[in-house]
Amino acid sequence: MNALDRLELLSPEAPVTEAEAAVRIRGLTRSFGGPRVLDDLNLDLATGSFTALLGRSGSGKSTLLRTLAGLDTAPEGVVTVPARRAVVFQEPRLLPWKRVWRNVALGLRVPDSQARAREALAELGLAHRLDAWPLTLSGGEAQRVALARALVREPELMLLDEPFAALDALTRLRMQALVSELWQAHRLTVLLVTHDVDEALLLADRAVVLRDGQIAADIAIPLDRPRRHGDREFIRLRQRLLGELGVDETGAER
């Protein structure tokens, strides 16, 4: 059975039992005085899974991520998430008056916070920037510090809100590879919000497309790693995801 055959068997995503789920959402509804941003949404994320969340602007992606992070309330519905969560945003959001290690250890209430920060920075290749000031960092270094700040909390759920969107193309590829390595090493449950179909296919094993606050598509990505843009299955999946997003290969609307 080839990957495309498996795709048809695995899409939509097989149900996740309550014991297997790191995240369980039932009937999540959210509005801000107008049309519903999230509309009776149901979604499970299996423990240790890597899911990409895609959709056009206004589809509800950021609202869902903020709800899972505890940054937005869920007035209607039930949301079950792990106690240990961490978020990485598009901007690193580092405090310029604190050295790198203090940014990583921000909010940690443990006696060995500096040692923990040093260990996390070393894993991301930044041990030599321990005492640097944030304003001396490159864009890629600053985002790696933001990842270290998330990782040092030993999260069970990592929420990534377009963390590479502001980076140049080469740095973005390096960061994508780094996140893939971290996920495989730590087996975190990861939810990545992205507008980039190729990024979703490179990193995730499942793509969920939101449209008008509801799940429009739930597609398994059964591709072997490492993944390559030119592989036939990769191209077929890209076309399918672009179709679900209502655009073609050039980005033009269909």
Characterization of the model:
The protein is of the alpha/beta class and about 250 residues long. It folds into 2 domains: about 5-85 and about 155-245, Rossmann fold, CATH 3.40.50.300; about 100-150. The protein has helices at about 5-10, 60-70, 100-105, 115-125, 140-150, 170-185, 195-205, 230-245, and strands at about 20-30, 35-45, 50-55, 75-80, 85-90, 155-160, 190-195, 205-210, 215-220. A 6-stranded mixed beta sheet has the order 5-6-7-3-8-9, with helices on both faces. It has a 3-stranded antiparallel beta sheet with strand order 2-1-4, covered by helices on one side. Helix 4 (about 115-125) crosses helix 5 (about 140-150). The model is unreliable at about 1-15 (pLDDT under 50).
Top CATH class of the largest domain: Alpha Beta
Q: What does the average pLDDT come to? A: 88
Count of strand segments? 9
- Major sheet: arrangement of strands: 5-6-7-3-8-9
- What's the story with the biggest beta sheet? 6 strands, mixed
Question: What's the end-to-end separation, in Å?
Answer: 32 Å
Features:
Rossmann fold, globular, 3-stranded antiparallel beta sheet, alpha/beta, 254 residues, 6-stranded mixed beta sheet
